[in-house]
Specification:
alpha+beta; Aminopeptidase; seven-stranded mixed beta sheet; 7 strands; 34% helix; globular
Length: 195
């Protein structure tokens, strides 16, 4: 199947309603901004870059959101999601590789990409633990390595708690795990938040 990854710069793209629904059902409220905030940022052309994945007929398959930190020569994939019927087919890996290429095109010498995934120990049910294990295994198969099991994502919405997550790095860099973590906090959340 031929895939197309398209950068969406404004909220008038025909796949935006599908992205917002998939964002809503895939990520818990405390791990993402509100849907109205997401749509407002997209309409205004601010916030994370959004890419939509479709097949050669234009059928929506999934999306990724992220940003590049040019001074670090690193990127951050904030969210990545596929329609449930597309999971387990290799499309997730293909989409992330296309996102990597997009980030490389905008940042010469890109060293790698930060990724976040839920911690296994925070799962409250066995099925949730299994789902988290699958997501972690997916990123590890790509070659991503855990740099911090103690990473705390600041609240995504007012009134929501901070979220403990695993922070992974996919790529090659001379930076230590401690440097990667400190650089990530500074670039993603500003110097007021430190590891």
């Amino acid at each position: 199947m031929e895939l197309k990854l398209e950068r969406v710069d404004r909220g008038n793209h025909p796949h935006v309603p599908l992205v917002s629904r998939l964002l809503d059902v895939t990520f818990p409220e405390w791990e993402r901004e509100s849907i109205p905030e997401f749509l407002g940022d997209l309409k205004a052309g601010r916030g994370h870059t959004l890419w939509v994945l479709s097949d050669n007929s234009g059928q929506f398959l999934g999306f990724a959101r992220g940003m590049v930190f040019p001074s670090l020569r690193r990127g951050w994939v904030v969210h990545v999601a596929l329609l449930s019927e597309c999971r387990g087919s290799g499309l997730g890996e293909q989409m992330l590789k296309l996102v990597w290429e997009e980030m490389q095109a905008s940042c010469a010498g890109l060293e790698g990409v930060y990724l976040e995934v839920e911690r296994l120990e925070d799962a409250t049910t066995e099925s949730e633990r299994t789902a988290r294990h699958k997501r972690l295994a997916f990123f590890e198969r790509l070659g991503a390595q855990l740099i911090s099991p103690g990473y705390i994502q600041p609240p995504s919405q007012q009134g929501q708690p901070p979220v403990p997550l695993n922070l992974l790095f996919w790529g090659k860099t001379a930076a230590s795990d401690e440097e990667l973590l400190a650089d990530f906090y500074a670039a993603a959340f500003g110097d007021t938040i430190t590891p």
